[in-house]
Design brief:
This protein is α/β, with parallel strands linked by helices. It is built from eleven helices and 13 strands. The chain has a single domain, classed as Alkaline Phosphatase, subunit A, CATH 3.40.720. The strands form four sheets. The chain has a seven-stranded mixed sheet with strand order 7-10-3-11-12-4-13, with helices on both faces. It has a two-stranded antiparallel sheet with strand order 1-2.
């Protein structure tokens, strides 16, 4: 006979005088008899993640030719085929940042504020990003042990000397009194693991001891399994098996998991294993979402203007992606790099799609992913027609299957000043999934109080 379990139940153990804790997936013993809410009365969790890819797009190859529900994947978007039903593409809207500084203004698409100019190629974020605004909504971050998790794949830094918080982080939290706190993303999967699943560093030089967590929580796992039904027992076993497989994958990730978080050499670690790293980071976030360790994440694939080369592509893509973007939108290595980045986004979304939730759905059904880049045409740094990809449904909040919404028809003039609308409208649409009464998002020229209703179910 199973009993009610709190959604906060953790499997715990001791090693070297330290407590180890591992979260559980959502179990039948944690929800009401209909499976529509937690037994405590709270609704089933909705998750949110921002995703950033760098250095723009080739508009002709990126924007789908047809709008509405019958849209088809464009050449650049073709890697998203396995998750297409969960994807809506928004094009033809304008990033209304009031000033420009190459790529820096592009990050307004994640917060709805004009950046603070600090001189040269430096700027600070002008306001809190949408992920942090959502985390502040009552019932989101205050229900989880970890407020939000922030990850980054490619480790290369700027080749042009860009700096400031706009460059160093894609996520910024309102610290009060006009202060913003940059949420620096983690590049080391083991650091992400530790941040999400417990303070567990008994020996910094002993990888096996650092990651063999399951051995230490086995006794508590057996105790909990004896209190729940057979279906929940099977879910716990599957969950722990998945964690074991993820541990092995983290240890196998080249280069060494002991890489410093902030490499300064553009070629450090090349070829960078971005394909594998993206999947490992996505699996960590997926486990954190399913275990309700956190409901908010940001995923920075690579920094703008970085010296990242996609050497792990097959075949490797010549040159670094930022430099390739300045060879023009039709330069083939640039086009290949855009498609490579879309493939990595697809990998992340497929991890979510393949992660089951208790109600018979998958993680994309309960998550909203907001993905965008810092410009439209990379060689001109244009912020007209900046594309936005929305994935997931947020438990039925977003339209499903997805659509292509185009604010202004494309006229073939790269960087057209004729685009209309406001990318911040999409931010407000996402915010209202968590706070239906939210009146607005952003401030100044990019401010919005009009959500994009076309993407809302």
């Amino acid at each position: 006979m199973s009993k009610y379990l709190s959604r906060r139940t953790m499997l715990r153990g001791m090693v070297g005088g330290s407590t180890v804790a591992v979260g559980l997936p959502l179990l039948e013993a944690m929800v009401n008899t209909n499976g529509t809410a937690l037994a405590s009365g709270d609704g089933l969790p909705v998750r949110f993640m921002t995703y950033y890819w760098a250095d723009g797009i080739n508009i002709d190859l990126f924007e789908p030719a047809v709008t509405g529900p019958d849209w088809q994947l464009s050449p650049s978007l073709s890697p998203l085929a396995p998750v297409k039903d969960y994807v809506s593409v928004v094009t033809g809207l304008r990033n209304l940042c009031a000033q420009t500084k190459t790529h820096h203004e592009g990050m307004t698409v994640f917060n709805g504020y004009t950046y603070q100019d600090t001189g040269g190629l430096n700027s600070n974020s002008g306001g809190p990003t949408i992920d942090q605004v959502i985390a502040d909504v009552p019932g989101v971050a205050d229900r989880t042990p970890v407020r939000a998790v922030h990850v980054r794949c490619a480790k290369a830094e700027s080749t042009d000397g860009d700096g400031g918080t706009t460059y160093s982080a894609m996520s910024h939290r309102d610290g009060g009194g006009g202060n913003l706190i940059a949420q620096i993303p983690m590049t080391d999967p083991l650091a992400v693991w530790t941040a999400l699943f417990g303070e567990f560093v008994p020996k910094p030089d002993d990888k096996n001891l650092r990651t063999s967590i399951l051995d230490y929580i086995k006794e508590d796992a057996d105790r909990v399994k004896n209190t729940v039904g057979s279906a929940d027992q099977a879910r716990i076993d599957a969950h722990l098996t998945g964690i074991s497989e993820l541990e092995a994958k983290i240890l196998a990730t080249p280069p060494s998991c002991d890489l410093p978080p902030e490499p300064t050499h553009a070629n450090s670690g090349n070829p960078e294993p971005n394909t594998l790293t993206a999947v490992v980071m996505a699996e960590l976030i997926a486990y954190a979402f399913v275990c309700d360790v956190t409901r908010v994440a940001s995923f920075l694939f690579k920094k703008f203007v970085s010296g990242t080369s996609f050497n792990d592509a097959n075949p490797p893509i010549a040159g670094n992606h930022h430099n390739n973007s300045h060879s023009g939108p039709s330069y083939q290595p640039y086009i290949d790099g855009i498609q490579y980045q879309m493939a990595r986004l697809s990998d992340v979304l497929q991890v979510f799609q393949n992660t089951p939730d208790l109600d018979g759905t998958n993680l994309l059904d309960s998550t909203i992913v907001y993905a965008s880049t810092d410009c439209s045409t990379g060689s001109t740094h244009s912020i007209s027609r900046v594309p936005i990809i929305l994935a997931g449904t947020g438990r039925g909040y977003l339209v499903h299957p997805g659509i292509h919404y185009q604010g202004t028809p494309w006229n073939g003039n790269h960087g057209s000043p004729n685009s209309t609308g406001n990318t911040s409208d999409v931010l407000l649409s996402c915010l209202r999934a968590f706070d239906p009464a939210a009146p607005s998002v952003g401030g100044g020229a990019p401010y919005s109080e009009t959500p994009l209703s076309a993407v809302i179910a």
